[in-house]
UniProtKB/TrEMBL annotation:
InterPro entries: MFS (IPR011701), MFS_trans_sf (IPR036259). It is found in: Cell membrane. One of its GO terms (molecular function) is transmembrane transporter activity. This is MFS transporter. It is a multi-pass membrane protein. Keywords: Cell membrane, Membrane, Transmembrane, Transmembrane helix. Pfam families: MFS_1. It comes from Actinoplanes cyaneus. Its main location: membrane. The chain crosses the membrane at residues 82-101, 113-133, 145-163, 169-191, 203-232, 238-258. Residues 267-285 have a biased composition (Basic and acidic residues). The lineage of its organism: Bacteria, Bacillati, Actinomycetota, Actinomycetes, Micromonosporales. Residues 263-285 are annotated as: Disordered.
């Protein structure tokens, strides 16, 4: 099913754009539907079923258990700022996807193939960023890379609505998306490492679940708000508004955690340093 869904996602827009140009949107949508049907048939052939998980403990602390992840994030001065930053950034990125499609395909008149290439090719930059992230951490330290990478990934989306409907404009979009994904590729593994180190062991699953649930709530809200803005003012203006919101999230980042001059912290050192930031309650009930 995941392989079928990726045909609609960012990573496979190159193939999707080329298929739409070659076969048309109806045939491409039909091929995508067939892929989902084949995935379902293959799943139906699985004869061995997993056992049901054990039922949850429905004691008097069930509400506290459900909110433990959010409370742990709120008690951590760095995690709560990263939490707010990541929610807004993720919402803006998801909301920008349909706006970029409208801008490129309708307003600027690019072909589906050009759209697929413009948003598909830069994905390699994200992979490259994740590969070079360990070397950058070794040189600069985890916290510096976390803050600079988080700020840098918010700078590029504002270039896209400024692009004209020319080959130069297409190059602007490709360049901006490449830079954004490169910065995000560096930030994401660093952020995942930091969150794991800064979270008490008993709260890892709950913090991750709270993060995921919050993202699922924030992203549809951002999509709806961006859609209303695009309907009222146009896709270009809505994208500029998202770019402005992203710039404000740079201020939310935990800049007070910037290490002092000459102190280069690696991931292991940062883990030891963050003992002072952990929530006081390490034993969830």
């Amino acid at each position: 099913m995941r392989g079928g869904r990726r045909a609609d996602g960012r990573d496979d827009r190159v193939v999707g754009g080329l298929l739409v140009s070659a076969l048309g949107p109806l045939a491409t949508a039909g091929a995508d539907a067939v892929s989902f049907a084949v995935s379902g048939l293959l799943l139906a052939r699985i004869r061995r079923h997993e056992p049901l998980p054990a039922g949850p403990d429905r004691g008097r602390h069930s509400v506290a258990e459900m909110t433990a992840g959010w409370r742990h994030i709120a008690a951590h001065p760095v995690l709560r700022r990263l939490f707010a930053h990541s929610l807004i950034f993720g919402g803006c990125m998801v909301a920008s996807t349909p706006l970029i499609a409208v801008l490129m395909l309708r307003d600027l008149g690019f072909s589906p193939a050009a759209y697929g290439l413009a948003l598909g090719l830069p994905c390699t930059a994200g992979v490259l960023g994740s590969l070079v992230a360990p070397r950058i951490i070794a040189r600069a330290g985890l916290m510096r890379v976390l803050l600079i990478g988080g700020a840098a990934r918010c700078l590029w989306i504002g270039i896209i609505p400024l692009a004209p409907g020319t080959p130069a404009g297409l190059a602007m979009i490709v360049g901006a998306d490449t830079a954004l994904l490169m910065c995000a590729g560096v930030f994401n593994p660093v952020f995942a490492t930091y969150r794991m180190q800064a979270t008490a062991d008993g709260y890892l699953a709950r913090v991750a679940a709270a993060w995921a649930v919050s993202g699922k709530i924030a992203q549809p809200a951002m999509i709806a708000a961006a859609g209303l803005a695009a309907a009222a003012f146009g896709a270009r203006t809505a994208l500029l508004a998202l770019a402005a919101v992203l710039l404000t999230t740079i201020v939310i980042l935990p800049w007070r955690a910037w290490p002092p001059p000459g102190n280069r912290l690696t991931s292991a050192d940062e883990s030891h340093r963050e003992e002072t930031f952990r929530a006081p309650d390490r034993n969830p009930r």
